[in-house]
Design goal:
Structural class: alpha+beta
Largest sheet: 6 strands, mixed
Number of strands: 6
CATH class: Alpha Beta
CATH architecture: Roll
Low-confidence stretches: none
Mean pLDDT: 93
Number of helices: 4
Strand content: 35-45%
Strand order of the largest sheet: 2-1-6-5-4-3
Shape: globular
Number of domains: 1
Length: 181
């Protein structure tokens, strides 16, 4: 009975570590934190990110600053996490809704995307990281021109999020340090 309880606890802790990895990915993407993003993948990982990348994650991560440069707003929301573990390997189907506001020479436009990540994870040297991540788009809702209103009266007096170190979280948090998992 004790061994079974210990095994269940180990599975629970592994699932929590993978869940935190998924959340760290969303935070790194939304804050344009490229160092943090790079730390989430194993060196030999694969990333399939539509037209942006299909192959070694290192290549995707190298292109990420250019990909995200026109993104005025990124907001990834994980809604459902389905995980299956097998020792030091795991797979996940992660549902998400991601808001993108994109800057162009013609102005701003929005794309709200609903989809899933098909993930494979590996635990190496005691740490879970992505070994393969593939984006699956289920739907997209575009708005051109942008419908985002950061000057809406409901937002009056609120801190306004921003990519990178201009985001209010960098000055607010002491425990949730930016650039770390």
């Amino acid at each position: 009975m004790r061994e079974d309880l210990e095994r269940q606890l180990e599975i629970l802790l592994d699932k929590q570590a993978i869940t935190e990895l998924v959340y760290a990915y969303c935070n790194a993407a939304d804050r344009h934190d490229f160092d943090k993003m790079r730390a989430l993948y194993h060196d030999d990982a694969i990333d399939e990110h539509g037209k942006f990348a299909k192959g070694p994650a290192k290549e995707f991560l190298d292109k990420l600053p250019e990909i995200q440069a026109p993104m005025a707003v990124l907001h990834h929301n994980v809604t459902t996490i389905n995980l299956k573990l097998d020792g030091i390997r795991a797979e996940g189907e992660i549902y998400l809704i991601a808001m993108h506001q994109v800057k162009t020479n013609d102005g701003l436009y929005d794309v709200l995307i609903g989809g899933r990540y098909f993930d494979k994870y590996e635990k190496r040297q005691g740490v879970w990281k992505f070994s393969h991540r593939s984006i699956v788009a289920d739907w997209a809702y575009p708005a051109n021109p942008s419908r985002i209103e950061l000057d809406h009266p409901f937002l009056a007096g609120a801190h306004i999020g921003a990519p990178g170190p201009d985001d209010p979280s960098y000055g607010f948090f002491k425990l949730l340090r930016r650039g770390e998992r």
